[in-house]
Amino acid sequence: MTDRREQLIVQAFVELAEGLASGFDAIDLLDVLVHRAVAILDVASAGLLLADQAGRLHVLAASSQAARELEVFQLQRDEGPCRDCYHSGVKVDVPDLTDEVRTWPQFATHALEAGFRSVHAVPLRLRTRILGAMGLFGTRVGALGESDHALAQALADVATVALVQERLAADQGALNSQLQTALASRIALEQAKGAVAYAGRVDAAEAFEQLRRYARDHNLRLSDVATAVVSRQLAPLDVIAHARPAADR
Prior knowledge:
This protein is α+β, with helices and mostly antiparallel strands. It has 10 helices and 5 strands. Helix 7 (172-200) crosses helix 9 (222-230) and helix 8 (204-217) crosses helix 10.
């Protein structure tokens, strides 16, 4: 393990731990987590899926639009590594996607067309319950080593901690409420991103950064800012104006 990689790992877990200790915004933290996973592991993109009360999976975070679209496609076709990982509760390691065309005919074909060549997944675990899965997508053929799988699982476990506080673990009703809140926040964030992207004529990634900047500079939760935009309590143009350099305002 190189010194640079060790530094990235330390920085990632320090950042995540500080977020957990300081009244974190789960959606914001999970976005940081999938981007750190890409920086640390030998993958091109990562996505995080969470199950609702009925066991249906939803995309909660993604490091790229390509990963988000692939995760959504996987859910629509009901086949793929994250789905299998969630239902089995064990990791999935596919070094070469071409070997899995028969297993996941639609997903594998779509992923290959999108430029991905390998896929991996680890479960989001809470004791004996599986809450979702984290998918890792590579543009080169190759397996994840044991140390990389351990790191990926550790990151997925941090995601679980971010979603479920320890005191809620024994309370099924409170746990379901926490998970539903996270899903609702994600929906509001996607709607807010769309509103800001349309108003500012920018792409979704830039809209997300503008929302995050507004939230952090005003010491607000990202989910609360998104809800304010969706409910029209905060104008998208105000978010956009705040993101401009001071000289341009």
